[in-house]
Specification:
five-stranded mixed beta sheet, 0% helix, 52% strand, Quinoprotein_ADH-like_sf, WDR74/Nsa1, mainly beta, 343 residues, WD repeatcontaining protein 74, putative
Length: 343
């Protein structure tokens, strides 16, 4: 298997998990090694804010860089096969991409959102263009833009089957936005007031569409809340709970292949699997120091990879009661990890 990492200094690193063969030809132990590193320079101007796998394109990732740049990169060759520069990108300190993604309903297009609340649709060319080219760079352009709110956006995901985006942030509750025109088609309603009759504060830090039904969206917050919304059922969450064992702000979430199980990380180095049916911890992954920046399931669902502020990449087994640490690699720089590929 292969993990693809993006660093704060602009590098893309590819890590392979390989199984060595023994002398008799049988399969031996798995080992992790950095196989390639792409990027000529390391500078703040090359900083990568976010990275996602390029939908429908083998060995390609989509990155959002500083300065409003969106690039499609082939991680096998290091070649940049698509590039877009947003001429109206925000320039204030702290303004950056929240996420940039592609989807099946948007071939050769990328949708991105800034922390400022501004969204853009980028085109890498006609749908007939060969975006999988290994040598030609398709210089695209921003074809649509819209601004929804001035409140800080902290979470963004594209709907897997419909031209919609899910957004949330600090003071911005979950909402669905039509990518074609920028109109809000659904907005979550805050939970009832607390026992002092005060509004419950809103701080969406990450979200994900559940695999069984894209109308169900799982959300984690900076106030250590776990919520699941059903867009077709109601505006308030259908599942809403907290865990006493995890009193810290959640930083990331990823749904598993099982629609009843999600994995999440917090700002104190905890990675856990949660069973949404009984609202309990299914598995706990130990040994991480510092905030968890990103987590992802392996392609077979038997492993979880986590990148944290301590600059280590860790691969855990999801099997058994102990959730053993299988591999640990020092990455030298702070990274995001969002993509697993079969080698």
């Amino acid at each position: 298997m292969r993990a693809i990492l993006a660093t704060d200094t602009g590098l893309i690193k590819v890590v392979d998990v390989v199984r060595e063969k023994t002398e008799d030809g049988s399969a031996g132990e798995e080992k992790v090694a950095f196989t390639t590193q792409w990027g000529a320079t390391q500078a703040k101007s090359e900083e990568i804010h976010c990275m996602r796998a390029y939908h429908g394109q083998k060995d390609q990732v989509l990155v959002g860089r500083a300065g409003g740049r969106v690039e499609a990169i082939n991680v096998s060759t290091g070649v940049k096969v698509g590039s877009v520069v947003d001429p109206k990108a925000p320039t204030k300190l702290g303004d950056k991409w929240v996420g940039v993604e592609t989807a099946a309903w948007a071939p050769n297009r990328a949708v991105g959102w800034y922390t400022t609340g501004r969204g853009v649709v980028c085109s890498f060319g006609d749908d007939e263009n060969d975006v999988d080219s290994k040598t030609v760079v398709h210089n695209g352009s921003v074809v649509k833009e819209f601004a929804l709110t001035t409140a800080p956006i902290g979470a963004f995901r594209l709907h897997p089957t419909a031209p919609q985006a899910a957004l949330g942030g600090k003071g911005v509750d979950l909402r669905l936005v039509e990518v074609e025109n920028g109109k809000q088609v659904w907005t979550a309603k805050n939970v009832p007031n607390d026992f002092l009759d005060m509004p419950v504060p809103v701080w969406v830090t990450d979200l994900g569409f559940l695999p069984d039904d894209p109308r169900r969206i799982a959300v984690v917050t900076g106030y250590h809340q776990i919520r699941v919304y059903d867009v077709k059922a109601q505006r308030r969450p259908t599942i809403d709970f907290e865990l006493k064992q995890l009193p810290h702000a959640f930083s990331c979430i990823v749904p598993s292949a099982d629609p009843n199980v999600i994995a999440l990380g917090d700002t104190h180095g905890n990675v856990v699997e949660i069973d949404l049916r009984n609202k309990n911890i299914k598995g706990l992954y130990r040994g991480i120091a510092g905030s968890v920046r990103s987590i992802a399931y392996g392609p077979d669902g038997k492993t979880i990879v986590a990148a944290s502020l301590d600059r280590f990449l860790r691969v855990f087994s999801t099997a058994g009661p102990l959730r053993k640490l299988q591999h640990k690699v020092h990455k030298h720089t702070h990274t995001h990890t969002r993509a697993w590929r079969r080698s």
